[in-house]
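Task: encode each sequence below as structure tokens.

Item 1
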Amino acid sequence: PYGTPLPALPAPSGDPSFTRALQAGRPAVGDIVMGPLLKRPLVTVAAPAKRGNSRPFVVLSAVETSYYQEMLEHLGFPKGWAVTLRDSAGAVIARRAPSGITQSDVDPDNTVIAKSSLANWSLVVELSRAARRAARAPAPRSCSSSPCQSCARMG
């Protein structure tokens, strides 16, 4: 009801954006926490602020992880690629992967981990074994009984 105080956000088990924003004096993102009202996973974005000579304070925004999931779904990655956004503790914020792909389908040699310079998050890009084999396979000499124009030129 109107006027009822909101519950406090739970403290993340890993990286807290609030503390880091105050200490660094710049915006920060935190690790996943479970939202106290809707019971959905959230990440917090904190931005330090100051008005005049007052003590610094932090503007805090909670963003559902589904927002990041939606962003990943709209990225155009090739077939057989999996992309995972992880927080500083390694928890999955969002993941886009072909249906049915599991960790055993991914070759560790075909995994790239990019750590963000702005957040303690990382982006993991994995290529499935099947996609890697398909990329290494030689191109067919002809398409079928009636070759396409590209195959016809190849002779």
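Item 2
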Amino acid sequence: DVKIGLGSHTWGPGDSDTELDVTLSEDVVWDLDVQAGVTEYDIDLREMLLSTLVLDAGVSDGLVTLGASDAGDADEAIPVEIESGVSALRIRVPEGDSVRVTIQEGLAGVTMRGDWDRARDEGTTVYESDRFDDAGAFWDIEIQAGIGGITVEYY
């Protein structure tokens, strides 16, 4: 396990310029667990190989950009688990990639940009990308939505 942070001190209004930039190797398959807390973030994973991504968005304003699900040796679902808390969250996925998004909606507004197939069942909504195929690698995104807004879009 590798833990990266800015320490355990209290931040105040004057600390708004505090920034943490992290660069990870593109040659390693990562199992990422991000605890965002009270923050603003831009997580660019376009060049990364992932086996899983867990994001606790906390109270935040964030952007997560995923790369191709079939990068590296991936040949099955790549789980992405997100708890959105009180957040504004934007998730970007590659156009043409196979993506399933399952959302447990709280009081969050959800916007899906682009063409998505939609199914709803008792508080859970499932979206699948155009021409979704679960026979190979695909992003399997599960979102526990709190309060705020969630946008999923293609790039």
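Check on item 2: The chain has no helices and twelve strands. The mean pLDDT is 89.
End of task.
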